[in-house]
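Reminder: ligand-aware prediction takes two inputs, not one.
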Amino acid sequence: MNCLFCKIIAGEIPSTKVYEDELVLAFRDIAPQAPTHILVIPKTHIPSVDGITAENSAVVAHIFEVIPQIAAAEKLTNGYRVVSNCGADAGQTVQHLHFHILGGRELTLQMA
Ligand code: AMP
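Here is what comes back for the chain with adenosine monophosphate:
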């Protein structure tokens, strides 16, 4: 499959890994928008939030169990933001479900 994040999972494209288990991979965003900017992705290919179903949502629950562990390891003790862009209007550029973890500075409250 011609998917950038599937290639990162396969090790065909390098990444700066911060967490990995049998279900998920987390790595540093190549163009960080905050001092800490990490992407958490399922190892199975789900195109976006729109592709989450009763059959595959367990991995999403697992991602949200892993996110606080990553935040703690990154010492984001003052808070952080979790974002998933879904579709064109949200500016999704990689069609493999991913959750941004942003932190390390006070983030603006702008939603759009
Ligand atoms: P989105 O715009 O929500 O689809 O997010 C895609 C994110 O992937 C962006 O923040 C990009 O900077 C990031 N990105 C693209 N290519 C890579 C890469 N090779 N390694 C790490 N992050 C990447």
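Residues 35 and 104 are 5 Å apart (CA to CA). The pocket of adenosine monophosphate is lined by residues 4, 13, 15, 29-31, 39, 85, 91-94 (CB under 6 Å). We will return to this case in the review session.
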